[in-house]
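Still learning folds. Look over my entry:

…
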Amino acid sequence: MSHSPRSATPTSPRRDDLRADCARCFALCCVAPAFAASADFAIDKPARQPCPNLRPDHRCGIHTELRDRGFPGCTVFDCFGAGQQVAQVTFGGRDWRTAPETAADMFDAFTVMRPLHELLWYLTEALALHPPAALRGELDRARDETARLAAGSAEELRAVDVPAHRERVNVLLSRAGAAARGQGGADRRGAQLFGADLRGADLRRANLRGALLIGADLRGVDLHLADLTGADLRGADLRGADLTGSLFLHQSQLDAARGDARTGLPARLHRPTHWSSLPLTPVRRPSGPAPVARRGRRR
């Protein structure tokens, strides 16, 4: 049984629809996912159980203190607009607190909607790169298909094979990134660069899809046309780095990293507020060949 009426021909969402609007959600990200006690979360929280910091009005009781209280993972999470889509469209504005019979279906729908909306965001970014005509047609069709899946009922969402769909879309996104990067550039796909000192490394046009850059030192590095799809930038030092022309860079990646007033950012992204509290230190570019990446501890 569908929870809300569906449009026969759903349209692809605008960029604004792919940004989280917490005021139109029911704190689904604070309930549906499981949290594991770690550097990102101070506690263990089972899936489908509300976070103990969640208030009855769906607001976080420690929102302004999340980093200080051991919940930096909450400050960098982005649902890409999936929360309000599930709350207001899939379930027609019904609240899982006041309509508890919807809770299980709503949480299940959110776990599918979130990756679909993430793919919609990447597909929108890929189309903005002005890919070749044939590839653009494939990207358009993939975006339309993903939008159709996201517009489904709770039952239809449950039947979506997210891994298979993601795999098909990622092939197109990889091609779009390659077309935008052009010739040259290092191939660091999936590279494990934990704590690596990359100052002086030439990462222009680099393929950094899925690279683990946790705690990496990228001070002063030029990342023009570098593909940062899914790159893990938690704790990465971006002070003085130039990301103005980086590809597929998302706000949550910046929120997880460290930077300063000299970090160059694309116009569509904003400088995280916590960056202003970081010490401003000079960027020293090492002489000689680029240093070898070294493994560091995750903090």
